[in-house]
Structure formats: C-alpha cells, structure tokens
C-alpha cells in the first residue's frame, strides 16, 4: 500500500521539479516568417576626430554626426534558420548631418528613393532602390546605418539561464559593426535579467576588421531587450569606440558612436502592400546595384559600381578610387572641362598636351590613340599610355567625352601595370554610361 502511494508522489515531485528547472532557462530566438511587419526607429550620434597625417605631424579635425531613420519593414524571404534574407522597407525619415571642423554637411534620402529592398548577396547585406539608382551619399545614408538584420546572430543557439554567456555569430558582429571584412572578435552576449516576459541581453567585447581598405579596432557594448511572448527583439542600445587607420579612401579617425533602436509591430503598412511587394525581383541585376554620379551643375551623369568610392569632389574636379577585397585597384580623376560651342569639343592636340604635362606622371609609351564609338551627337576620344608615377609602372586610359551641346568632361583611369588584368574594362563600363542632359 505504501509503495503504491509513494510512486505517484515521487513522479509528481519530479514533474514539478522538471517544470521549475525548464522555467529557469529561456530560448532567445526569433520566429520570423514571410510577411512579418516591423516599424524601426534608429537614432545615432557620433563624436570624435579625423586624424590627418603629414610626415611626423598629425592634425586633429573635430568630427560630429547625427542621423535618424524611421522605416516600416516587411519580410519577403527567410533562410532555413528563419533569418530574413530579403526585406522591403519604406523610409518615412532618412537623414543625417556630418560636421567636420565646424562645417555641417546634411544628407537626406530623396522621396523617389524611399522604397528600398534589403537583401543578403554574396554574404553581404546590400540596399537598393527598385525605382532607380542612388547617389553615393544616399547609399551611405541607407546602407551604412545600424544593420538590424544582423541582430538575429546575437541570440544563442540553445536555451540559456540567467548569467550565462555565449559568443556572437561572426556575421552578426560584422554586420552590427559595419565592417567589410571581419578579422577577429571577442564579443559575447549574456542574459542579465528576465522580468515580465522581457529578457535583457548585455553585449560586450572587442573587434578587429577592415572597412574600405582601412584597419578598424572597436570596443563594443550594448543592451538588447527581447519579448519572450512575441519572440521578438524590441529595443537596442549600442555603443562602440572605434580606431581606424588611414585607408585608400578615408583618413585615420578616432570616434565614439551611440545608437538607440526601437521596434514595434504594426498590423498593416499601406506603403508595403501585396501589390507593391509582388512586383519586386527575387534577385536584382547588376544595374540595379549601380550608383549614379552627377556633375555639380547637373549637365551630365554616369553610373558606376559600388566598389568605386568618392574621395574628393569640388566644382572643378572629382576623384574616385576602386577598392576590391580591401585592396586599392585603381583611380579615376574627373576634370570638368569648360563648355564648348554646340557641336565642338577639346582638340586631340590639347588632350595629348594635358596628358603629357600631367604633374607627377611621365609617359614612356603610347599604347592606343583614337576615337571610340559614341551615341549620335556625342564624341569620345581615348588615349592609352604607359608611364611612371613615383617610379611605379602605371597604365593610364584617358577619355575626352563631349555631348551635343558642348558639355565635356575628361576622365583619367589609372591602375598599376600588375593590376591591369584585374582592372579589366571597368573604364569602358563608366564611359559607356555617361549621359548628357539637354542644355537649358
């Protein structure tokens, strides 16, 4: 009789004990599905200095930046782990102000580019507008804000208890820190508290990586709130201290960034209706990812690959550099030539003289010289030479391009002799996309 009573009691006690133990551990992971909607608000503040080095001297220029992004997002596709691989966003607000040495430079997304597709391509998250190309400033404004899609890699793969820590997924660290490549990281998450169905995760650690060819070291810390009932993260506080070496497209810098993110879940979003989303391509073509460069007066423009980075732009000239796999592959110097009479352009003799007299470059051999096929009313002349710059063997392809109304531009593409094969025909891709606007 006693044995008959004891076993049910023991089983009941074991059951209660098992339930209590399970309740002390939590699964922190999102159950993302196609069609899920979120509204996300991001506010960023950055302070620090640009470090300009000349010989043994370093000049510090004060650097500040603020940004605000407010968008609604709809999940279009997910991977086998339930992580979003494609979303579509509509930005109600996307603006930033970058202030260097007291001079503010505001940026804002044009209304016709507020619809954005965000997609994982070749292990990188890219944003593009299905309604047309963005400028480099717009791409940086949209493509370089805090990457909320990377937050899925913050969570542990198994249940955790209070005080337990885990190592963050490398793709999450790379995305959250805005790196082109991750060298190493020691970033971990820790479950700090659970209260009223809200879990708080602390994030701390160090990171080494590469961005636009520059080495970057970061100390990161943050806090993430996770709703255990909805199985969704709801807010993030992110802080990072960054030291960046001088790279081929940017000076050295030392900055500290603070980011606040809020997320809620609307039931509908008219800007992301089924009709709008159904018309989006599953994979964008290369042209959709190109950026547009416009001459300051709007007289002409061209399209270019995102691996080209705008380094300098004035009312007289611009400089772009090509970075591939963290390595400087080439440079494009653009000179805005004076407008000629309708139907006229710079002479071949003038072009040859400009190339011969270019400072810091000595011609050793002319490879090719002649006209290039162009659209009706336009004129393109190419002069290809081999020479030396600072005793470095260089190939330079110089193009004089003129439109029907006399607008003209000089483009000089430069690459090392050893990089000619990798550089390929990227010069022709840009030259062939130059479009002149009708004169007013």
Characteristic terms for this protein:
2 domains, 7 helices, 13-stranded antiparallel β-sheet, mainly beta, seven-stranded antiparallel β-sheet, Lipovitellin-phosvitin complex, beta-sheet shell regions, 440 residues, single chain, Protein Transport Mog1p, Chain A
Fold topology:
Blueprint: H1 2-23, E1 25-26, E2 37-54, E3 57-78, E4 84-100, E5 103-108, E6 115-121, E7 124-128, H2 136-143, E8 160-161, E9 165-167, H3 170-176, E10 181-185, E11 188-195, E12 198-211, E13 214-227, E14 232-244, E15 252-264, H4 274-278, E16 291-294, E17 300-304, E18 308-313, E19 317-324, E20 327-337, H5 348-356, E21 362-372, E22 379-389, E23 392-402, E24 408-416, H6 420-423, H7 426-431, E25 435-436
Antiparallel strand pairs: 1-8, 2-3, 2-15, 3-4, 4-5, 4-6, 6-7, 9-11, 10-12, 11-12, 12-13, 13-14, 14-15, 16-17, 17-25, 18-19, 19-20, 20-24, 21-22, 22-23, 23-24
> What's the total helix number?
7
What is the architecture of the largest domain at the second tier of CATH? Roll
Report the average pLDDT across residues.
Answer: 90
- The percentage helix is 10-25%
Please sum up the structure shown:
This protein has 440 residues and is mainly beta. It has seven helices and 25 strands.
